[in-house]
């Protein structure tokens, strides 16, 4: 019975030699043309929006020394907003801040700046890794 199991494997033992196999030059690869700009990270964009919303709705008097916690249920990221300072920029209400972002790919620190636009919405002017 054991002899029958060895017979089918005998054909696999010879015939093909990897040392003699060459490079297949018949294949050509290419790339898809883009606009030259890197695509934004969708998770980071979602986290920025969550942070912007937390910054814009924060009661500055109630923000503790530990900062203002934030969490994004869509991405699983979280962190704390610290050093939140309000200022006037040519008649627009703005807030500068520092923020930590804990995500699946690690912890990062950012410096941000958000201002209220004329229509009442808030826009992130700066969000850079520090």
What would the keywords be for this entry?
alpha+beta; 130 residues; 19% helix
Overall pLDDT metric:
83
Order of helices and strands: HHEEEEE
The strand order across the widest sheet is 1-2-3-4-5
Count every helix, treating DSSP H or I runs of 4 or more residues as helices: 2
- In whole angstroms, the N-to-C terminal distance is 70 Å
Instruction: Sum up the overall morphology in one term.
Output: elongated
Q: What can be said about the biggest beta sheet?
A: 5 strands, antiparallel
Helix content: 10-25%
Q: Determine Rg (CA atoms, Å).
A: 28 Å
Q: How much of the polypeptide forms β-strand, as a percent range?
A: 35-45%
The poorly predicted ranges are none
- Which class do the helix and strand fractions yield? alpha+beta
The number of distinct β-strands equals 5
């Amino acid at each position: 019975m054991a002899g029958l199991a060895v017979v089918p494997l005998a054909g696999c033992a010879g015939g093909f030699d990897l040392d003699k196999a060459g490079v297949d030059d018949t294949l050509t690869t290419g790339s898809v043309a883009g606009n030259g700009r890197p695509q934004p990270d969708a998770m980071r964009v979602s986290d920025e929006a969550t942070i912007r919303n937390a910054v814009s709705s924060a009661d500055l008097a109630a923000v503790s020394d530990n900062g203002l916690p934030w969490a994004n249920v869509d991405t699983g990221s979280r962190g704390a907003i610290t050093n939140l300072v309000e200022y006037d920029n040519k008649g627009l209400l703005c807030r500068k801040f520092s923020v930590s972002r804990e995500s699946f790919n690690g912890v990062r620190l950012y410096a941000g700046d958000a201002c209220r636009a004329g229509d009442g919405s808030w826009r992130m002017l700066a969000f850079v890794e520090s």
